[in-house]
Sequence to fold (187 residues):
Amino acid sequence: GDSGIYVNMFIGSSIKVERPSGPDIEMIQETDYPWSGKIAITVNPAETGDFSVFIRIPDRKTSELYMPQPEVKGYRSLKVNGESVSPAVRRGYAEIRRQWKAGDRIEIELPMQIQKITAIDRVAATRERAAFRFGPLIYNVETIDQKNIDQPAGSDPLTAEFRKDLLEGVMTIRGKWADGSPLLAIP
Fold:
């Protein structure tokens, strides 16, 4: 945009943005999102300049029909060159306006918690059913991993576990079913 650059997706990458209203900017992202909420962005403008970097701050609530527990939103921490900053979040973006120079580094940590998502009672098709989410991903259970998936999840806490041996490396959700057997959910 005319006032700055927007970061909408979090993926390890390098991009050079040609700006008609200011200097070109190289942006380098380092992250293993969506497995971790830690994201580092190096801002390299072709010349020092005053502009904004707008960082998308996900709000995981999708609608009034579905209730995630626990509620997850905002960010855990946000730093520029190691110093904490607390920009306002407007329309889903944290705006960091400053005099940027090559090598400036933004570090943000988004909350990553397992959420259990249930529908309100008016949604008859999903009554007494739940979905799991970790970060931006919805998880499912499959009979290949456990035979009886037509039962409620148990009351024990769910845990996130990274499995290098599964799907070329993936975060899984582990817990127990109501009958005490192991529960495994994958994205």
The radius of gyration is 20 Å. DSSP finds no helices and 17 strands in the chain.
